[in-house]
Amino acid sequence: MAYEILVLDIDGTLTNSKKEISTNTLEAIRKIQERGHKVVLASGRPTPGIVQLAKQLSLSEYNGYILSYNGAKIINCNTNEVIYQKTLPKEMIKDLYEAAIQNNVGIISYEDDTIIAGTSIDEFMEKEAKINNIPIKRVDNFSEYITFDVNKCLMTGPGDHLAQVEQIMKQKFGHILNIYRSEPFFLEIMPKDIDKAYSLSKLLEHLGLSKDQMISCGDGYNDLSMIQYAGMGVAMANAQEIVKNAADYITLSNDEDGVAHVINEFML
To answer: Which of these, 24, 207, 210, 252, could form a disulfide with 260 (CB 3.0-4.6 Å)?
Structure first.
């Protein structure tokens, strides 16, 4: 079956170590879009942290899609229409804030194009701000401040400590929330059942395509679901071992135009 849709994680996949899209990769993505293939950027990043890259790839011109917050929101880049969205239960925000304080980790969420920090700003929050090129705003009472819908919260802290907090959070909230680490220092707190694969199934339904027509490329833990789900799941050479083991194909690294290699091999 011909592959019609290409799904790309961003950090460690689409972008190289300098957080840039190489000329070769850019060119390859433009070529498949010109041929009518759909391109989706699927990331744990908030939507504002993806928009600039979508512009660079001309996704609005070719009706491409942004799947942000690990799948909690999908938008059409051309129309800005929200294709699918799921938010955290509002009553959970207070519990999450208190759990962050009890376990001595940071907690953030997002408001428009700003990161909202409920605890002291740490180096990991600063990293998130830099990756997405958006500012951080520290608030005194996180649970009182967040009266609006949010797609996810993110807990931050050193990897060893956050690994322990992950288990605590799963025991406490795993029955009502989806909880996993996307990086050693980022603990994703997501609405129940939300991951990249689940949301991609909603997008495919919207487009009238099947998963057999989809290639998904990624490198991190949060890419595992979509790599296992896709007709062809591709791991970057720089991917976590667990991701490589789950993949149908291992391409070159993000510093060696791994995405362009996949396009040339399977879509052009």
So the answer is: 24
Residue range 58-75: mean pLDDT, rounded: 97
Task: Give the whole-angstrom CA distance, residue 66 versus residue 43.
Answer: 8
pLDDT in tens, 12-48: 999 999 999 999 999 999 999 999 999 999 999 999 9
Length of the chain: 268
Query: Could you tell me the end-to-end alpha-carbon distance of the chain, in angstroms, rounded to an integer?
Result: 14
Cα–Cα distance measured from residue 35 to residue 267, given in angstroms and rounded to the nearest whole number: 10
**Ramachandran region, residue 191 (left: φ > 0; alpha: ψ -120 to 50; beta: rest):** beta
| Average pLDDT value for residue range 246-261 | 98
CA dist., res. 86 & res. 194, Å (int): 8
d(CA 150, CA 72): 9
Please, what is the Cα angle at 232 between 229 and 237, to 5 degrees?
A: 105
Name the E strands within 46-127: 65-68, 73-76, 82-85, 106-111, 114-117
pLDDT in tens, 78-136: 999 999 999 999 999 999 999 999 999 999 999 999 999 999 999 999 999 999 999 99
Instruction: Determine the Cα–Cα distance for residues 158 and 27; give it in Å rounded to an integer.
Output: 38
Domains parsed from the chain with CATH numbers: 5-86+194-266 (3.40.50.1000), 92-191 (3.30.1240.10)
DSSP-derived pairing of the beta strands 153-156 and 186-191: antiparallel
Please name the amino acid found at residue 172: K
Q: What is the pTM of this model?
A: 0.93
243 and 235 Cβ atoms separated by less than 8 Å:
yes
pLDDT tens digits for 204-216? 999 999 999 999 9
